[in-house]
Amino acid sequence: MSFLDREHTVARPGYSRWLIPPAALAIHLCIGQAYATSVYKNALVAHFDTSLTAVGVIFSIAIVMLGLSAAVMGTWVERVGPRAAMFTSACFWASGFLVGALGIATSQLWLVYLGYGVIGGIGLGIGYISPVSTLIKWFPDRPGLATGMAIMGFGGGALVASPLSRQLMAVYDTGYDPSDPTSVASGGAVTSLFVTLGVAYFLVMMLGVFTVRVPAPGWTPPGFDAGAVAARPMVSTANVSAANAVRTPQFWFLWTVLFCNVTAGIGILEQAAPMIQDFFRDGGTSSVAPATAAGFVAFLSLFNMAGRFAWSSTSDFIGRKPTYVLYLGVGIVLYVLLATVGNVSTVVFVLLAAVIISFYGGGFATAPAYLRDLFGTFQVGAVHGRLLTAWSAAGVAGPLIINGFLDARGTPGELVAADYRPALFTMVGVLAVGFVANALVRPVAARFHEPTGPSGALAEGKV
After folding, report:
1. CA atoms within 13 A of residue 14's CA, in its CB half-sphere
2. 147-186 residue pLDDT tens
3. Can you tell me the distance from the alpha carbon of 288 to that of 424, in angstroms, rounded to the nearest whole number?
4. Which of these, 309, 254, 314, 267, lies nearest to 428 by C-alpha position?
5. SS3 for 415?
6. Strand positions, DSSP E, 277-366
7. 3-state SS string over 244-278?
8. Cross-strand partners of 214
9. Phi then psi for 344, rounded to 5 degrees?
10. How far apart are CA 32 and CA 21, in angstroms?
11. What span, in angstroms and rounded, lies between the C-alpha atoms of 135 and 462?
């Protein structure tokens, strides 16, 4: 297994850095399947004869484990390098599906919690952060573009996984109609689906494992001017370790920013299909058909993916802090409009929701570049892993806020636009907190910087 060692992944002269984003995409497109769990959610409810809440816990566990494993394993990922980390991610992610399949086949829901939730969630966390520091080191001139290309894959994973899963379940269960939103696949079909996805994702992720490389020491892209980059506001040439980063106020301001941005966005995503039907409900009947609502969810997934690339790339030109001013400040305005005039027409509703979700996705992709600006490249992957605990917390807080308000307002299937307003205005307040936290971000104090030698390199023994 020595081919996994970091020293065996150093790129030879002439290696194209443009091979790194596809390697990262091979990982992120696979683990992005986490956003497609709704495809077989009803099938699991029927198979286990349980509630939507009990099945929804599977996804919640996976997201919590994503944040925890990224935080705990971040320094290890930096130490062993991207190839060993990607391989580990592939093993955990694939094993999670296989253990989950065993749980479905034996009607043991706790095994699905353990498999897809815990084991798969660990694979999610390691896979999510493993390409980040490598991309930033290959693209010091455009870190937002680089991380946006990779993290775009996580947002777009559902666009591949959703139709693929439906078609596979139709193959394994001839009574299942993938074009009918009310059709429910058998437990056996979902078991076979999990086995198929586990094997297929492992093979695709191996493409990334064998392709990824780290730049040779001292490498820079042709024409790169480090001085010009360092001259930009809020961009530091110093480096801060992960252990020191969590002691800075800047880290916790960014933690709050990401938490608020994700909490607000996930509130829309989690309720997307019923929300658009409820906003246009009159006399108990919605003018939006179930199939149209499903199409709306796919449309939002597209904007989630596109926002990760477009907004993160834009941040290379306008700066990370102004980009989050856009996400949070304009997001406040959009949420107010959604609450007050979102039910005027479906076009208005869809456009407002789409831009909000693009900000949600963009916030994920811009975060690693923001961390690089403040803390340098030394252990940026490990710092990013610790920051992702904000995602875990938001994954719990967002649905709780939305569902708590909606449960108090009425019965699902009978709600109207007015019932969503308290929750939406609460999200306005959440975004306002994030806006203030972003405004408070300043360059990191010199006392947190790593010592450097006479050449300006990190002191011996620090790497």
Report:
1. 0
2. 898 888 888 887 888 889 989 999 999 999 988 877 899 9
3. 21
4. 267
5. coil
6. 281-282, 285-286
7. HHCCCHHHHHHHHHHHHHHHHHHHHHHCHHHHHHH
8. 10
9. -70, -45
10. 15
11. 21
